[in-house]
Design a protein that fits this description.
291 residues, mainly alpha, globular, 80% helix
Length: 291
Amino acid sequence: MAAVLLALVSAFLFGAMTVALRVALRAHPEAETGAVATTAVALLVVAVGAVVEPGTGELARPRELAVFALAGLLAPGVSQMLFTLAIRDAGSSRASVVVGTAPLFAATLAIALLGEPLEWPLAVGAVLVVVAGALLVGEQVRPEHFRLVGLAYAVAATVLFSSRDVLVRWYGEDAELASVEAAAAALAAGWLVMLAWAAVRRRGRLREELLRPALLRFAPAGVFFGFSYLLLFEAYYRGKVTVVSPLVATESLWAVLLSAALLRRSELVGARVLLGAALVVSGGVLIGAHR
């Protein structure tokens, strides 16, 4: 029950982060700089959590640090950069619907790499997810800022999210690091990746951009992201991927509902987007419950 509650709260906070990030990007559209700023705040939140909730006291093994650093390289490392680009180009609601397909990608990885069988509930869930994608691609009315490449960024980010989740759950059972310590290690590694990427992309402008007062606009998104990440790791430490992943995937529904409530004019959340979010969540729950 604890894993279920943690996963649901993490999903809500991730959805809130998505909307807060979209608001910040409207005023400061440099996605790379925004991703670095958002994750820096999230890392601060996780670091405070590590102080408030001391870990096991055991000396971290190099292998453990390497595994969780690898998880951080995948997500939030490269994936958060792609997700920020997706939000900038496709909007918070549409990018979140795509990210909600994570259980399908996780199941596909399990079938391809772990030999899990393909049975009818998974196939039905996959169909629901595909229909949701078709609804998004076939939209006739979209926001002015929408670019189709944003959905491609979201798909790539989703694959990395799914890979991270499988890795954390696979190794979390035997890890001596506490969940908060593991989250801090992964987030720190991910932030370093973003910083390096942003330094290359923004070149000499990154330092100046990070010192702008406008970067404070990303602080709310960073706070939501940090707490979501903490709860996500705790959920995976306590529950199975097959339980936690579908619940975390409900972030797409939260993001769409929050976008409709707070960004109605700029996001143009219509029936297709709402239906797509509902289908994605339904398909994800069906896939996760069966597996």
